[in-house]
UniProtKB/TrEMBL annotation, chain A:
Main location: membrane
Organism: Psychroflexus gondwanensis ACAM 44
Family: Belongs to the cytochrome c oxidase subunit 3 family.
Gene Ontology, cellular component aspect: plasma membrane
Residue ranges annotated for the Heme-copper oxidase subunit III family profile domain, each copy included: 1-328
Name of this protein: Cytochrome c oxidase subunit III
TrEMBL record, chain B:
Main subcellular location: membrane
InterPro entries from the UniProt entry: Cyt_c_oxidase_su4_prok (IPR005171)
Native source organism of the sequence: Psychroflexus gondwanensis ACAM 44
Lineage: Bacteria, Pseudomonadati, Bacteroidota, Flavobacteriia, Flavobacteriales
Protein name according to UniProt: Cytochrome c oxidase subunit IV, COX4 pro superfamily protein
Its membrane topology: Multi-pass membrane protein
Single GO cellular component term: plasma membrane
Length: 328, 121
């Protein structure tokens, strides 16, 4: 009886016949990392395409990124468009540089240098995550507040110079008799959502009292700015269509404009942030492996190279998110 | 292993890393400056229904992506077959996504703005 049960396919000795030859000339691990990166890149492209699609639908009323993301740490009330995100971009690019330096040191089998550069990379990743948390905090908290209209649009308020003015600056909450329902008093108890003491009536009263205030709609004019109504139109708009006060952002509404804007912000930057977080965790695991000498014994620092590929990919995605969310 | 040649190679690799870092930084600074200044002639002049400013942003982003993938992810040292497997897959599928988003997005916007009397009541 024939000893072998493997059928001959006539591809022996060819590149696609298997065997020792590696057609893509890369190790199994690196190849799989590349395949993962390719599919993950398509996932992010899908998200960004969905963002682009939704933005096209609301092309004439989409929020202007400069006005939404204009905070910088320790600069309160200073209009600093883009600086903060630019800083975040630099942090990530720089952590990419230290990562590639760690890979390079790995090629030279210099353990100490790998340790240093990987530690710097992890530090960069953690700083980036912290920055993103701060960015989310500002986004969720909001700055000026807005009024929602019955058609689900947003109207914002500007002073005589056309500068944004916060709801709290021209209206004060009227005292209300309000008893909070506590857990000890109820059989069926659900904690209340955040309570906004400022009611629509307060905003209306404040707006009427300040003759110079006007309403700014979501509509973008030919000059690329949001449309500002006249005083009469403003009063009419607020009094006939206003249904509620919005401060900050959550998953169903936000003070910046289309609810989808907030949804995409949370989803895309959140999904990217989740990638950074998992990147940091994997980096930490590999970092400790480097410390205890696992790769030194193995004779190759390829694991550092593989986590490096992932880390650069995270940076790559941020470059695109930065462009399409903050610049375009 | 010949020690001298590998040493020279590594010195070159380090130089390349810093070079790419400088290029990426300059491109990012240019993007941010343009994004803050928004020069009028770039905002108001269109090329194939996209403003020149947005074209600049998109092109610079792709240039940055090229440097990150080629230099940092060492794509330039991989086999041509691996390069093609990764890059062409992305290029074809992403072009498809972009085509859909442009066609359908424009269509939906048209229906949204022209198909109804108003959405802002």
């Amino acid at each position: 009886m024939e000893a072998t049960t493997v059928a001959k396919t006539g591809t022996e000795g060819q590149a696609w016949g298997g065997g020792e030859e590696k057609p893509l000339k890369a190790s199994y691990g690196k190849l799989m990392m590349w395949f993962f990166i390719t599919s993950d890149a398509l996932t992010f492209s899908g998200f960004l395409a969905a963002y682009g699609f939704s933005r096209f639908k609301f092309i004439e009323e989409w929020p202007i990124a400069d006005e939404v993301f204009n905070h910088f740490p320790f600069l309160h009330g200073v209009d600093a468009p883009m600086y903060y995100v630019a800083l975040m971009t630099f942090i990530l690019i720089f952590s990419s540089v230290t990562m590639v330096l760690a890979v390079d040191a790995g090629h030279e089998m210099k353990k100490d240098k790998v340790v240093t550069y990987m530690a710097l990379t992890i530090l960069g990743g953690v700083i980036f995550l912290g920055s993103q948390a701060w960015e989310w905090k500002n986004f969720i908290q909001g700055e000026y507040g807005a009024v929602e209209t019955r058609s689900g649009k947003i109207i914002q308020f500007v002073d005589a110079d056309g500068d944004r003015i916060a709801l709290g600056e021209f209206s004060t909450a009227s005292p209300k008799d309000r008893t909070q329902h506590l857990e000890k008093n109820g059989i069926w108890y659900k904690a209340e959502d955040s309570f906004n003491p400022l009611a629509l009536e307060d905003v209306k009263r404040g707006f009427e009292a300040n003759e110079t205030l006007r309403v700014r709609t979501m509509q973008i004019t030919d000059e690329g700015e949001k449309e500002i109504l006249t005083r009469e139109e403003s009063l009419l708009k607020l009094n006939t269509t206003g249904v509620g006060v919005i401060e900050g952002a959550n998953l169903s509404q936000n003070e910046y404009g289309a609810p989808l804007f907030g949804g995409f912000f949370f989803f895309i930057t959140g999904f990217h942030g989740f990638h950074v977080l998992s990147g940091v965790l994997i980096l930490i695991i590999v970092f400790f492996n480097v410390l205890v000498g696992t790769y030194e014994k193995r004779g190759s620092y390829e694991m550092v190279e593989k986590v490096g590929l992932y880390w650069h990919f995270v940076d790559l995605v941020w470059v695109f998110v930065f462009t399409f969310f903050y610049l375009v | 292993m010949a020690h001298d040649t590998t040493h020279a190679k590594h010195a070159g690799a380090k130089k390349r890393i810093w070079q790419v870092f400088i290029i990426l930084s300059i491109l990012t600074i240019v993007e941010v400056v343009l994004g803050i200044l928004k020069p009028d002639f770039l905002v108001h002049n269109d090329l194939v229904s996209l403003s020149l400013l947005n074209w600049i942003f998109i092109v610079l982003t792709i240039v940055k992506a090229y440097y990150i993938v080629w230099a940092f992810m060492h794509m330039e040292h991989e086999a041509a077959s691996l390069r093609r497997v990764v890059v062409w897959t992305g290029v074809f599928l992403i072009s498809y996504l972009i085509a859909i988003l442009l066609i359908e997005g424009t269509y939906v916007q048209e229906i949204y703005t022209e198909g109804y009397i108003t959405w802002d009541f």
